[in-house]
């Protein structure tokens, strides 16, 4: 680092200093510090710091190929009143970084796109587990895309840059972490695949890990890959992430700021804590071991205990902080719940650790719907509907998303809704939040690989959660699969999803080693809240299609990850057997309300008859019959009708428009008698047979002499003349006629 004082022109190799000559604080000239990470396949990740955003607590730029992401970390110096970590991650895709201009009216970046929200969630889940539980300082991570090429994806690079920014900052954090993207092509694992490689890959998985090969986050989708291939990819990806961690640790050691001290919150006295626990322990055990309670009954019972205990403690210790008492009760409730799992070897609803909740399915609920299904798992209920529409209804992606994904549009997409009544609450019903966007995207990934990409219709699958007590996104995969089959979509196989939970015990020494753990299959909402993991996995009988690991502890051993995937695979097979009893395969017989699509071919000279002036005929057809017409390649038109009856009506109208009377075949080079029907400045309009649309005989083809207007030759309407036919123009479909060539032949 070089610094220079304004009173001298001497450079000093220190960051900041005060000049003894003028007592002025120096201005600093920073140079960028670059660190390289070499992957096993020869690809290189660069992490730099010290050049940009120097007023932030920490800043780093990650570069993979020509894709660069700058990440800043800023944390307030005073704790907030919240009893949770107020961490916010904002990832922004800048059109300028891709050499594009936004296509909206204002031509600037507006609200967060779905891709930005999903990437922000991935980064958040990669960083949050490594913050201390007592850290309640408002912290913001902002990821700015500086440049993006059409080769390298920025998601994993953004995670690594965020890890480096936190590492060099003074923000207390138990990192660093490293992240890699993993693909699978021809049974070969590809680390940080390019965009073109991802299009050929059966797997698109982001793995975030910390030291000692501990997994922090998993997020990905697959094309029905086998379990052993997924396990192999996770192992290799975790190993590759270690080189990133070593590099960031080196950066932190050389350039990192000393970590700030966390302000310790006031604590309750041991006497207060002891009384609170003695008053609540037996009552909480009684609640959590009453296997007849459902979600609401259990929650209400805990609330009764809470209110009674807090009131008694407050009466005995009026000077104690009510918020601290409430927080201590919450922590103790969590401890009691977790300890009971180990001691009772049962869950709070009486199930064994590998046991599924009761499942029921129903399809074809309402006649007007193209496809529908109701999936019930315990107290989680999801209603899924399928709508089939024309290819024009496909979801168009923004320019940056097109560049990074290689897709211009999607003909299959899933919309997930979680209204407040699903958990017996009230609230606003409006724009989707980040949680709903993330759950919907995960369910879509779980079903995307089973939907045929050459399906002629656009498919919109909606999933509305009517009741929720855990794993509504995986219920959306199950219900969505049934709804697709009910709509007759030829899916490759039925898909189902399940969530695996974790309750673990750690040693009390400095190593914090995991001493014991229990995996829970098909977790409840309370098991998600009280537990250490929410591992969602979806797939078919054959393989896996999507996974997402939300891990709440600072890293999960690979052994636990492998066991969780195995348990999810076993549970998934059981769910698919239950779904098979409801609907075994896609519906073959057509419903009356199913849409119909058809391609017709129209001769070039008849296109104007079908379209009409300004497209008036097509607009009228859509208004009267509901059938839309889209022009395809050359002479082909695609008709989309909401049902077969509408298609039949539209075909009648089109037949009348095109006039099915047989048109005489004209020979190329043949000589015909033409009748003038109209005089124009550029030529005359003639017909060669009755009922023929008038064709133009241009001034240049009227006579061997140059003709400025047909009147110069004394031509009039109704006059007949001999013309030669040269076929139709291949582009416009208009007839090509000439009178001039016959005059030349006569002179010869």
What do these coordinates show?
The protein has 748 residues and is an alpha+beta fold. The protein has six domains: 28 residues, no CATH class; 224 residues, GHMP Kinase, N-terminal domain (Ribosomal Protein S5, domain 2, 2-Layer Sandwich), CATH 3.30.230.70; 75 residues, Arc Repressor Mutant, subunit A, CATH 1.10.10.400; 224 residues, 2-Layer Sandwich (Ribosomal Protein S5, domain 2), CATH 3.30.230.70; 63 residues, Ribosomal Protein S8, Chain: A, domain 1; 77 residues, Beta Barrel (OB fold (Dihydrolipoamide Acetyltransferase, E2P)). It has 16 helices and 32 strands. An eight-stranded antiparallel β-sheet has the order 11-10-12-13-24-23-21-22, sandwiched between helices. A six-stranded mixed β-sheet has the order 4-5-6-7-9-8. The protein has a five-stranded mixed β-sheet with strand order 14-15-16-20-19. Helix 1 crosses helix 2, helix 5 crosses helix 7 and helix 9 packs across helix 10. The longest helix is centred in the first third of the chain and has 29 residues. 38% of the residues are buried. The N terminus is likely disordered. One of its GO terms (molecular function) is 3'-5'-RNA exonuclease activity. Its EC number is 2.7.7.8. Keywords: Nucleotidyltransferase, RNA-binding, Transferase. It holds the Pfam family RNase_PH_C.
